[in-house]
Amino acid sequence: MKKIIAKGTAQELIDSVREYTYVETECHDECFSFNKRTYSLKPLNVPHAEPDLESVFFVDALKKYKHIPEITVEERETQIEIPEIVMEAKGLTKRFGDFVADDHIDMVLKKGEILGLLGANGAGKTTFIKMLLGLYPIDEGELWLLGKKIESYKDRLELKSKIGYVSQKFALYKDMTVRENLIYFANMHRIPTSKALKRINKLAEGLGFKEYMNYLPTELPLGINQRFSVAAAILHEPVVLFLDEPTSGVDAVARAQLWKLLHQLKQKWGISILITTHYMSEAEYCDRVVVLKQGKKIVDDTPENLHKKFPDAKSFEDIFIRFYEEG
């Protein structure tokens, strides 16, 4: 059952959580930190920060639960040499009849980088991801993954153990429990049983879904389903992770927890991440962003550089709108 958590104008809602919003600092009790801010029900000895509308959700969650679980991931067990360029696409093109879904797109994903692929619905983001994974054939252009030119299905099979994928709809087996799903994915990647069970338990504990292990995916809250899907995608410890709109439809707290998880994977595993989203604000959490419009690339730059180009922009949404109007 959906519930209204607050009413008022945008400014009134922002003002209502101002006293709980601080510049990011270390905090352990009745608090939560995300995106350069710390939210705390108890006074902190640091300056206040300017809240936004998402701040309302974080403060509401703290008032309701007193504690928002921190998401943690341990160091990877296996070490592997990763090339400086993890993925390179040159002129990648996909057509459906006369419709060009992706039009000669060039893109590079670097080692240990979070690359955000942004654009409105129908811009070509999911089609591009599916070409990278071989779910759609490439009509034109060239693709390199982990230093290997992809020319056949055999080339992809050789790289399967190094790639993780979270699909748009969280493609999990709905008639199997969380535990059974994870064991199935471990078997698919030929992870020995004892090692698989150890990894599954660590991920369930660190990602906060341990109590849901015997639930079916259809019985899970969407935010838990999201983290469970990521666990299935990283169980085999890949070096590159593709995520297709994993934050779509989940609440602000679940989105924040996912982004904290992705940054931990980058820092602790050195993993490269390509994530698609239509939430323009999420560009701020990426090292670099590519924006698509009607199948064409119109932006490829860092959030910092984009803010420098548009110093009067209040948010990345403003920057995105300007490029869309001009592009």
Can you put this structure into words, describing what you see?
The protein folds into 2 domains: 10-65, no CATH class; 85-326, Rossmann fold. The protein has helices at residues 10-16, 53-65, 125-133, 153-159, 178-188, 193-206, 222-234, 252-269, 303-309, 316-326; strands at residues 21-23, 31-34, 37-40, 85-96, 99-110, 114-118, 140-145, 148-149, 163-166, 240-244, 272-277, 288-293, 296-301. Helix 5 (178-188) crosses helix 6, helix 5 runs parallel beside helix 7 (222-234) and helix 7 packs parallel to helix 8 (252-269). The protein has a 6-stranded mixed β-sheet, sandwiched between helices. The longest helix is centred in the last third of the chain and has 18 residues, at 252-269. The radius of gyration is 21 Å and the shape is globular. By secondary structure, it is of the alpha/beta class. It has 10 helices and 13 strands. The model has no long low-confidence stretch (mean pLDDT 92).
CATH topology of the largest domain: Rossmann fold
Which bin fits the share of residues in helices? Answer: 25-40%
**Strands, count:** 13
Describe the biggest sheet? 6 strands, mixed
The amount of beta strand, in percent, is: 15-25%
Straight-line distance between termini: 41 Å
Q: What is the highest CATH level, the class of the largest domain?
A: Alpha Beta
Count of separate structural domains? 2
Short description, anyone?
With 327 residues, this protein is α/β, with parallel strands linked by helices.
Give the helices and strands, then pairings.
Blueprint: H1 10-16, E1 21-23, E2 31-34, E3 37-40, H2 53-65, E4 85-96, E5 99-110, E6 114-118, H3 125-133, E7 140-145, E8 148-149, H4 153-159, E9 163-166, H5 178-188, H6 193-206, H7 222-234, E10 240-244, H8 252-269, E11 272-277, E12 288-293, E13 296-301, H9 303-309, H10 316-326
Parallel strand pairs: 6-11, 6-12, 9-10, 10-11
Antiparallel strand pairs: 1-3, 2-3, 4-5, 4-7, 7-8, 12-13
Helix pairs in contact: 5-6, 5-7, 7-8
